[in-house]
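Recap from last week: sequence in, structure out.
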Amino acid sequence: MTLEYMTGFGNHFESESLPDALPKGRNSPQRCNYGLYAEQLSGSPFTAPRHTNERSWLYRIRPSVKQLGRYEQVDRPLWRSAPAEQESELPIGQRRWDPVDIPDEPTRFVDGVRTITTAGDCTTHSGMASHLYLANESGERDYFFTADGELMFVPQQGDIRLATEMGILQLEPGEIGVIPRGMVFRFELVDGPARGYLCENYGSKFTLPDRGPIGANCMANARDFKTPVAYFEDIEEECTINVKWCGRHYTTTIGHSPLDVVAWHGNYTPYKYDLRDYSPIGAIEFDHPDPSIFTVLTSPSGEAGTANIDFVIFPDRWLVQEDTFRPPWYHRNIMSEFMGLIYGQYDAKEEGFLPGGMSLHNTMLPHGPDVDAFEKASTMDLDPQKLEGTMAFMFETRLPQHLTGYAAELETMQDSYVQDCWDGLEKKFDGTKEGAWD
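Predicted structure tokens:
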């Protein structure tokens, strides 16, 4: 299948699968061409300011009210929602896990989500959840949407295809895809079983961060984001719609595909982005900037400069500073950091942090490079250095992230993580010497 995309972020797009399916100069004409129904999907309150107002007009074979059916509540105990603060009896501490295997038994996306942390409250549109998704089966006529937040897919193993109401996104490891709150989609495997990370954003939708004195260029450029073109299914078969609403899961069966949007226009859209298109910036003489310079997307909280979520990456880049400790320094932070590794090595922890693995460094808990990384970075020649073949990321939030019972009991948790990383750090202080340690 050859897929087409439109480029840009936050644009007002328009797309049609049949000629003249889009009304000209009318959003909701008395009669739509082809016997279509006009329907608006709003991602913001009607009266939101113009720069934050998001909505799309969909021209579809049947209105969404025909998708109602009779909902039944279903139990998906491993897909958790905030607040879920008392699930783990583990004491506070820094945590790291090896990769979780994809199950052997048939597992569709909707049954293969495994929640690791939750923060905030999905019913008040605040906070987030970090998940793994594990799947070895597509689910031919299975569809899903969540009213609790938008979903960011971060593939780590296996390509996936997300067939949405507004078109198709195909993703490979190194790319991300975002599905807006309330949008119906189908999850498909492309080349075998798939594993990846999933951020469920309960708060304000992701947007590009302001660049401030950086100016007009670098970081994530709007032109590199891709939105799908219109695609529809005119299928008269039994289809299942799975719904997540206020932390609970429901299912219903209808007699047709819900992906029946023939044309659409608006700015409330799914999109994809290739993380390798990110243009990193950094110090070019000395010192080590904060990791905020690697922010791809941010979900604002309403408090200036304090994000509901920042999505941060650590891609290929040059290190050129003089007299500077180049890996991430030891620090404590108001933000809590869920971290994953898509491929390669992470420069602050070259051993033990594996692709498909994850770590959690929560609010105000200290963390930083392991012993080997510290010794290497403290004694290396400071010639220009290129980090290549690496892609780590963080889901970072101003709220504390609470471990789920599933995460606390995972066999892949590295029980000796803290000891392996930092027990070997030695006292180097010598009050009789004025220079740096030997």
